[in-house]
Amino acid sequence: MKVSAQDKIQVMGNFSDMYIGHTVTDGESLQSLGKQYSLPPAKIASYNQLNPAAPLPKNKRIKIPLSKDNLLQQKSSSATPVYYVVEKGDDLNRLSQSYNMVSINKLKDWNDLKSDAVKEGQSIIIGFMKIGKSTTDKKETPPKPEPVSDNTTNKSQPPLVKAPEKKDPDIAIPKTNKTSNSPAVKESQKLEENTVPETKKEPANGYIPKEGDEGYFALAYSQHTTGQLKQFHSGDGASFKTISGWTDRKYYILMNDVPVGTVVRLTGVSNKSVCAKVLGPLQEAKGAPGLLVRISNAAASVLGITDPKFPITVTYFE
Length: 318
Fold this sequence. Notes:
Layout: E1 9-10, E2 12-14, E3 17-23, H1 30-37, H2 41-47, E4 61-65, E5 80-85, H3 92-98, H4 104-111, E6 123-129, H5 183-189, H6 218-222, E7 230-240, E8 251-254, E9 263-267, E10 273-280, E11 293-296, H7 297-302, E12 310-317
Parallel strand pairs: 1-5, 7-11, 8-10
Antiparallel strand pairs: 2-3, 3-4, 5-6, 7-12, 8-11, 9-10, 9-12
Helix pairs in contact: 1-2
């Protein structure tokens, strides 16, 4: 892909794996980049296969992933245009299909075009991105304690005891009544055709669930062994039911010809992605022939998938 002017932000990659480049300056970190580009630091680390706890080297080139969440279709004075450099065979219809289904009329308006025709090498605005100011991590000076008055008259007064903080209750998971012996209740207790039981608990890795990140297994995905090759597979997917993932963001998949325990990245048509662990091969079930993968219903929910059958891309290292 050709290089555009330095003062323009150019989209790289393809429509299923879009990103822009950022060169790290002195003092920048994953946290400051996350604030600048409105992305979870863990997602930037996972996308670049970086250790989230390690400092960023100065002048390192970082990829900032793009999706419909941060590649906006609304022009404003506070948003920066993102450009695509036209290649041979491109037209506005192809760009519309490739970049978040932006309307052709918007592409014409943003680029002052009179027709659908574009020229090879031409820079075309395909969206906008809100980018904050570059910041560096600085240690904040703790506030000085307020002076204590010596005019206390009742020195025998006991110290105040701080009330314990209230915590949000965990989300309750409904349980099946196992005391009934009726056939209907026994049948409801069986796993459905496309359901797998809750998996064993994984050892803690210091992960704190956060909305918008790639989940519990994102760190493991980013820490693959040196020398492993990245594998890509695209095809049809379906989901299975499990209670895991809704609060702990641990996502799982069933997939043939991939070793059990492998951590993969799942990317849906919305360009959202999560990381999941392989539980085993696809089970014999209705609708299984022709499927690439089954993903947990919690993962499907995060990816914005509601259809029973959907296109999915799986990447992993081996």
